Every structure is written in structure tokens, then in C-alpha cells.
């Protein structure tokens, strides 16, 4: 079965420093050391400092604007009070030293690609491109997020299987507007003969919404609405530290993608919301959470779940929860997908071997080891008791 649902343009983890400048020209080791020594971050953050936002500089910065806001608390005192442009330049210099040249080239190419689309694409519903919560979400969802307690969130959710949460989320008028915007995107792509990047390696149809200027709105969706839920229900997979996303729509139908193979997502937490329209089939099927080591292991009976989509209703689950979609047998189904990621969790995961806090197979192996240990201890005690009695 296929489990390679990774996104081709996935942001790789930062690698060790290379002795080269921003143009790929080799410099001496002593020069590289001097460059690093003049641009250093503090080991401990200034927790009282409120970082600036760099979102409006997204087209000029070479890295994700959120990264600059995260790093700002680590700036030395002489820089942290400087102008935003000075801080951005200081942090850019550091990041460029630690970023592989190949990754920088790919990032710049994607930035150029995105800028070309945004410059030429005419938005149909401009109100979609900023977060208007009261117009986007149903009142019950907004109320639960505002109260921000496990009790309030569970009151609007169903949990048909452990770790899979479903709840009403999007208002019908928002779904309609986004569907119209998606159709507008498809028409523009067709009229201009523009080749666009598809959402992932498995979907041949669909569009990356971030590339069409919806990234800021989707980032607010992750930060203000998905992260509070994930902090409560998915802390063990980085739910408290979600800091980036990949937002896209997928389209299923007889003349589109028909189904979706068994896979895991390149995400820590996945939001999947059906936008419509009228369709038959297309059920999601879930088969348990797995780490990389156990991704192809057998499914246990208690891990089997089939879910039928309802427009406006969301499904939230761990990205490592194995799943797929059955064939859409009639009509057309379009879903909004938001892959939410945590760079902190991904870095920590490199040093871990036991994922029994969330991987179903790791849990079973750990439980089996404990049972064997208990049995061996009992056997040893009984043996000693028998020897004492004799």
C-alpha cells in the first residue's frame, strides 16, 4: 500500500553550517567563523518581548515570515530594540549561513512562481483573503473556541474513534464562496494555460490555495482556531507548537481524482473540511496511527473507522493517522485540506525512538514488553517460593 503522501515542496529541516556565502562562493573557515561570531542569537529568549509581524514582507524575505517572529525573542539586546528592517536583515544573515544553497534556490523559485500568480490572478471574492471569523464559522464553533476549554470543545465534537474529531465548522455561504473562488482559479488556469503545482504527489487535481494569496487567511485559521484545539487534543505530536501550514483543495469526481490511496499526511495535525457539492461515495477510511517504523503494520479491529463527508463539517486528526478515500461514484466532491506542522516536534522526533505516546503499534509493543516482564517476574517469584518451601 502507498504511504508516501509527502508534499514535494516540503520544507526541509535546517542543516549544519557550510563554509559558503550567500552566492555559493567558498570562504575560508576562519572567515566563516568570524561571520558567525558577529551574528549570534541569545541562548535564552526574552519572554517579555512582543515580536513584530513580518507577514507584509513575505515577498521580499527569503524565509517564512513566521520564522522571523519566532527568532526575534532570541535577538541580542543591541538588536532587539532596533528597527524592524534592521532586525529582519540581522536574522536573514544568520539564516542564510545555516541554510543549504539548494534549499535557498528552491525557495526563491517558489517565491517567484507564487509572485507571478498573485500578480496576474484577479481574485473573485476578496473577502476570503482576510479572516472574518463571524462570516466564516458557525456560532457553535466560535463559542467553543472563545471559551477555549476541553469541556467547551468536546461539547461541539464527536469522536467516532480515538483521536478523530468531527464537528460543524464552516457556514454554507463561506463554502459557496470558496467553491466559486476555486472554480474561478480553475478557469484562470485554463484560460492562461498556466501550469500550477498540485497539492501533493497523490492528487492530480486540486490547487494549492497558499500560492493564490490565501496563505495569510489560512495561517490565521491555523493559529487562532486549529492550534487551540490541537494544544488540548494533540500535544504529543506538536499540537502546542504548530508554526506552519500547507493549505489546498482537492477535487473528486468521475472526470477528476476518483479516490485516494492509503497514506499518511506530511503534517502533525490535519484539518479536512468538505465544501460540497452533491456527491455519492467518497468516504474516508481510517486505519490507526503509526510512526515511520510501523507505518505498514497490520490494522487492529478497534482502529477501523469509515466516515461519510458532510458539507461544512470538519474532520481533525493526526497527520500520521493512516487513511484514504473511497471512490466518489457520482457528482463532485471538493474538500479544503490544511496540513498543520510543527518544526519543534520534527526536530525533537529525530532523537526519539519510542513513540508509544501516540503510535498504536509502539503502544502495543510496549504493553507486550511489560506483560512479558511481569510474567517473567511472577515466574521467578514462584520459583523462589517453591525452593523455600522445599
How would you describe this protein?
This protein has 2 domains: 89 residues, no CATH class; 221 residues, Sandwich (Jelly Rolls). The chain is built from 12 helices and 13 strands. The strands form 2 sheets. Strands 2, 3, 4, 5, 7, 8, 11 and 13 form an 8-stranded antiparallel beta sheet that branches. It has a 5-stranded mixed beta sheet with strand order 1-6-12-9-10, with no helix packed on it. The N terminus is likely disordered.
Gist?
The chain is an alpha+beta fold and 390 residues long. The chain is built from 12 helices and 13 strands.
CATH topology of the largest domain: Jelly Rolls
Number of strands: 13
Helix content: 25-40%
User: Order of SSEs, N→C?
Assistant: EHHHHHHHHEEHEHEEEEEEEEEHH
First CA to last CA: what distance?
A: 58 Å
What is the CATH C level class of the largest domain, in words?
Answer: Mainly Beta
Uncertain stretches: 1-37
- Number of H- or I-type helical stretches: 12
Question: Domains counted in the coordinates: how many?
Answer: 2
Based on CA atoms alone, the radius of gyration comes out at 24 Å
By CATH's scheme, which homologous superfamily of the largest domain applies?
q2cbj1_9rhob like domain
Mean pLDDT: 86
Strand content: 15-25%
Which tags fit this structure?
390 residues, alpha+beta, 2 domains, five-stranded mixed beta sheet, disordered N terminus
SSE topology:
Blueprint: E1 4-5, H1 29-38, H2 65-71, H3 77-80, H4 84-98, H5 101-120, H6 133-136, H7 139-147, H8 150-154, E2 158-161, E3 164-168, H9 172-192, E4 207-208, H10 215-233, E5 244-253, E6 260-265, E7 269-276, E8 279-281, E9 284-289, E10 304-307, E11 313-318, E12 321-325, E13 328-341, H11 343-349, H12 360-389
Parallel strand pairs: 1-6
Antiparallel strand pairs: 2-3, 3-11, 4-5, 5-13, 6-12, 7-11, 7-13, 8-13, 9-10, 9-12
Amino acid at each position: 500500500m502507498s504511504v508516501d503522501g509527502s508534499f514535494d515542496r516540503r520544507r526541509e529541516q535546517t542543516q549544519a553550517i557550510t563554509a559558503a556565502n550567500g552566492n555559493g562562493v567558498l570562504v575560508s573557515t576562519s572567515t566563516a567563523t568570524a561571520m558567525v561570531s558577529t551574528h549570534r542569537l541569545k541562548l535564552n529568549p526574552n519572554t517579555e518581548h512582543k515580536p513584530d509581524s513580518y507577514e507584509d514582507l513575505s515577498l521580499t524575505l527569503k524565509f517564512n515570515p513566521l520564522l522571523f517572529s519566532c527568532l526575534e525573542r532570541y535577538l541580542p539586546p543591541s538588536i532587539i530594540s532596533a528597527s524592524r528592517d534592521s532586525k529582519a536583515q540581522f536574522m536573514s544573515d544568520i539564516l542564510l549561513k545555516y541554510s543549504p544553497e539548494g534549499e535557498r534556490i528552491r525557495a526563491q523559485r517558489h517565491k517567484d512562481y507564487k509572485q507571478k500568480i498573485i500578480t496576474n490572478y484577479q481574485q473573485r471574492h476578496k473577502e476570503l483573503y482576510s479572516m472574518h471569523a463571524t462570516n466564516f464559522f458557525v456560532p457553535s464553533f466560535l463559542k467553543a473556541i472563545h471559551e477555549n476549554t476541553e469541556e467547551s470543545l468536546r461539547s461541539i465534537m464527536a469522536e467516532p474513534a480515538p483521536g478523530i474529531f468531527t464537528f460543524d465548522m464552516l457556514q454554507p455561504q463561506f463554502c459557496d464562496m470558496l467553491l466559486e473562488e476555486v472554480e474561478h482559479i480553475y478557469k484562470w488556469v485554463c484560460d492562461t494555460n498556466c501550469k500550477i503545482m498540485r497539492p501533493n504527489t497523490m492528487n492530480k487535481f486540486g490547487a494549492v490555495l497558499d500560492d493564490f494569496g490565501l496563505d495569510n487567511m489560512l495561517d490565521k485559521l491555523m493559529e487562532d482556531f486549529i492550534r487551540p484545539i490541537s494544544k488540548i487534543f494533540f500535544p504529543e505530536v506538536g499540537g502546542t507548537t504548530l508554526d506552519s501550514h500547507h493549505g489546498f483543495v482537492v477535487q473528486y469526481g468521475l472526470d477528476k481524482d476518483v479516490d485516494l490511496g492509503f497514506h499518511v499526511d506530511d503534517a502533525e495535525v490535519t484539518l479536512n473540511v468538505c465544501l460540497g457539492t452533491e456527491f455519492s461515495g467518497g468516504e474516508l477510511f481510517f486505519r490507526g496511527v503509526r510512526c515511520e517504523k510501523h507505518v505498514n503494520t497490520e490494522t487492529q479491529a478497534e482502529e477501523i473507522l469509515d466516515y461519510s463527508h458532510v458539507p461544512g463539517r470538519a474532520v481533525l486528526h493526526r497527520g500520521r493517522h493512516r487513511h484514504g478515500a473511497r471512490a466518489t461514484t457520482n457528482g463532485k466532491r471538493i474538500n479544503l485540506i490544511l496540513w498543520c506542522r510543527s518544526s519543534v516536534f520534527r526536530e525533537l522526533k529525530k532523537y526519539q525512538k519510542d513513540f508509544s505516546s501516540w503510535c498504536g503499534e509502539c503502544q502495543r509493543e510496549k504493553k507486550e514488553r511489560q506483560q512479558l516482564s511481569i510474567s517473567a517476574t511472577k515466574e521467578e517469584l514462584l520459583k523462589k517460593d517453591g525452593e523455600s518451601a522445599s
